[in-house]
């Protein structure tokens, strides 16, 4: 909640909180229903469908994503889990982040308790007990741009339990598969800016 509030308009807005009365604890947040850029797992446990966008719409979304990350970086905010399923295309046309559970402020030495291997840098997979760095979000943004453009999860054809090993070894999404040279160069610039 703290990081959502710090992020302000770059975060999806909170409508309410969800409590488990039996356990007397907060279990989630209520947010407006917005369109995720990629399917996550729905409450029923099944993945949703990937939204279809034209190349022009993808360019616009990618531009908004880049501006969003630039604003967060300028404020020293680390989201910690940048990926299309945490990016929402909101009804006002803006791209915002949700799922701030791993977020921190640069320098606070927060150690994330989880990692999304498909979007993580080699450093993050090799050193999961190290504090998050701003560069982690830059790398994950490059991977996210690749996914938005290619309309598929990177390494989706690789068994889930070995993705982290491949990432630790330095594997990156196949930028040569991107059919737009400007988008490919943008992806490379974000991946290269990673840790």
TrEMBL record:
Pfam families: Pkinase. InterPro entries: Kinase-like_dom_sf, Prot_kinase_dom, Ser/Thr_kinase_AS. GO terms for molecular function: ATP binding; protein kinase activity. Transmembrane segments: none annotated. Residues 1-195 form the Protein kinase domain. Keywords: Kinase, Transferase. This is Kinase-like domain-containing protein. It comes from Lentinula lateritia.
């Amino acid at each position: 909640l703290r990081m959502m509030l710090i992020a302000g308009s770059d975060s999806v807005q909170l409508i309410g909180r969800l409590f488990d009365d039996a356990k007397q604890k907060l279990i989630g947040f209520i947010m407006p229903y917005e369109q995720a850029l990629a399917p996550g797992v729905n409450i029923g446990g099944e993945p949703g469908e990937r939204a279809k966008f034209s190349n022009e719409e993808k360019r616009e979304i990618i531009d908004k994503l880049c501006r969003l990350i630039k604003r967060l970086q300028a404020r020293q905010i680390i989201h910690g889990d940048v990926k299309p399923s945490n990016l929402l295309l909101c009804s006002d046309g803006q791209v915002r982040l949700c799922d701030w559970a791993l977020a921190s402020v640069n320098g606070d030495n927060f150690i994330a308790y989880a990692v999304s291997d498909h979007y993580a840098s080699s450093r993050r997979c090799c050193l999961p007990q190290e504090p998050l760095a701003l560069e982690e979000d830059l790398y994950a943004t490059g991977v996210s741009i690749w996914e938005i453009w290619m309309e598929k999860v990177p390494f989706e054809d690789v068994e889930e339990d070995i993705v982290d090993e491949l990432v630790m070894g330095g594997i990156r999404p196949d930028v040569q598969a991107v059919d737009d040279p400007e988008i490919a160069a943008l992806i490379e610039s974000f991946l290269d800016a990673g840790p």
